[in-house]
Amino acid sequence: MERAADASDVKPDRLSVLPDCLLHGILSLSSMGARGLVQTSTLSRRWRHFWREAPCLDIGPHEFQGDDEFQKWVRFNNFVDSLVLQHDAVGLDALRMQVVEPPKDRSGRWSRPDGNSWVRRCLARYSPAVLDIRNQSTSGAHVQMRRVTRGTVLHHLTTLRLTGVTLCAGFEHLLGASGCPLLENLELKDCLIGFREVVASSTLKTIVVHSYNMSMGESSLRMDYTPRIVAPGLASLDLVLLSWYAPLWEFQMSSLVEATVVIDRGRIGNAFQLLCSLKNVTKLEISTFPSLHLVMNSRFGRDLPEFHNLTTLILEQCRFTHDGPTLLEFFLLLATNLEKLTLENCTLPSSSERMVERSISMKMSNHHLNLKFVEIKHRKKVGVSGIIEYLLRVSKNLLRTDIVLSEGRENTWYQAALAAQGWWD
Questions:
Q1: 353 burial class (0-12, 13-18, 19+ CB within 10 angstroms)?
Q2: Which helix or strand (DSSP H or E) is residue 119 part of?
Q3: Which residues is 238 bridged to in the sheet?
Q4: Burial per residue of 306-318, b for 16 or more beta-carbon CB atoms within 10 angstroms, e otherwise
Q5: What does the alpha-carbon distance between residue 93 and residue 275 come to, in Å, rounded to a whole number?
Q6: Could you give phi then psi for residue 159, rounded to 5 degrees?
Q7: Sign of CA dihedral 120, 122, 127, 131
Q8: CB-based burial label for 19 (10 Å; 0-12, 13-18, 19+)
Q9: CA separation for the pair 364, 359 (Å, rounded)
Q10: Positive or negative torsion for Cα 38, 153, 130, 134
């Protein structure tokens, strides 16, 4: 009777009766690392070889514990060698890799000349649709990706995400059409660039470049390169450059539809070229941009283009000065089809008479007859009336435009990120 009672207390294994495709989906959504995935082989006979077909892998040394960092590193590399030999799913849905700076052995020497060669072995073995490489070093320094892309062609890759790594010479091959012929989405966060070659891709649709980590500036490589992206099919650009160590990229993107640009006010170089490359957008958000009169000093006789397609404009944290034409004046003058204008936490000088006189002399009133809606967001009520008065005096059409006042955000996400590092009050 006791055995029968004990048998009745055993809960049925409902998980194992699920079909393989559903189990693989559950494992893909979990945070289980590759080592934990392999350890599921001990659960039951059904699970013994199940991990070999898993469509998603999360590989990194974080799963290996111990006091000796070098021994942990050796165990991890041995594990990767075994994994790539025994895991059978070559065409992965997603491959996530967490990289660190390789530790030194007891004699003080580096473990390997190219310590993250395990990344190259994984890229040579697998052909994922999504590739995510993240820096997990506790030191805060960039992890250099040396020779990891040599000869690599990822035929099925559509999304590439890189965080906190240095893209050494050769990485432009992976970013371009020859290395990733189907790449559509590129996301680079706090990465350093160690190559000068042009990256050309006809398949790229979205690019995200964020650099705001102020502690990740140490590198033995030259960082004065200016990356250049040629992407005729690019539709969306999200560019946030607040770190002093990140270069301002150059873009050729004739099909761009929407863009978000956040640049440190002291970053003048290439800012003019960036504005020119945005001329085809329909929706544009600009924040903390350098003063336009300073940007115009580097135009070398060229004029800013007209933004015929622009219908929605958002200016945030922009300081309008009377020293020269402002971004606001520029877009009111050259974006003739502008329909919606949002000004969030923007400021005018204490005396804006010179701005009004300059704007009137530029005959701006006849250039934005399509403007239907103006939204002014501000954390403080002080200064709002000055902005409204300026707009009404500059443009007669604004008398027929809906003007809405609302409370602006206290801090944006990137301001919060800088504040966490002690770089924003």
A1: exposed
A2: helix 117-125
A3: 208, 260
A4: ebeebbbbbbbbb
A5: 37
A6: -130, 125
A7: negative
A8: exposed
A9: 6
A10: positive
Closest by Cα among 50, 120, 108, 132 to 84: 120
Length of the chain, in residues: 425
pLDDT tens by residue, 375-424: 888 876 666 777 777 777 666 666 677 778 877 666 665 565 555 555 55
Residue 298 φ/ψ, nearest 5 degrees: -110, 20
- Cβ-based neighbour number of residue 327 at 10 Å: 20
**Are the C-beta atoms of 277 and 302 separated by less than 8 Å?**
no
Edge to edge, what strands does the sheet with 198-200 contain? 198-200, 228-230, 250-252
* Residue 216 pLDDT exceeds 70: no
316 within 8 A of 285, measured Cβ to Cβ: yes
The amino acid sitting at 342 is T
Contact 295, 324 (CB under 8 A): no
Distances (CA, A) of 126 to 24, 97, 134, 316: 17, 12, 18, 43
Min mean pLDDT across 48-52, 73-77, 88-92, 139-143 is at: 139-143
Task: Evaluate whether 94 touches 129 at the Cβ level (below 8 Å).
Answer: yes
- Residue 200: phi, psi to the nearest 5? -115, 130
CA 147 – CA 197 distance, rounded (Å): 16
Taking residues 161-166, report their average pLDDT: 89
Helix (H, G, I), strand (E, B) or coil at 275: helix
As a whole number of angstroms, the distance between CA 335 and CA 339 comes to 9
Write out the DSSP string of 187-217. Answer: EEES-EE---SEEE-SS--EEEEEE--TT--
Start-to-end CA span in the chain (Å):
72
Structure token pair of residue 125: 């073995």
- At 28, the amino acid letter reads S
Longest dimension (CA), the chain: 100
Cα torsion angle, 56, 57, 62, 66, sign: positive
Q: What's the rounded mean pLDDT across residues 41-65?
A: 84
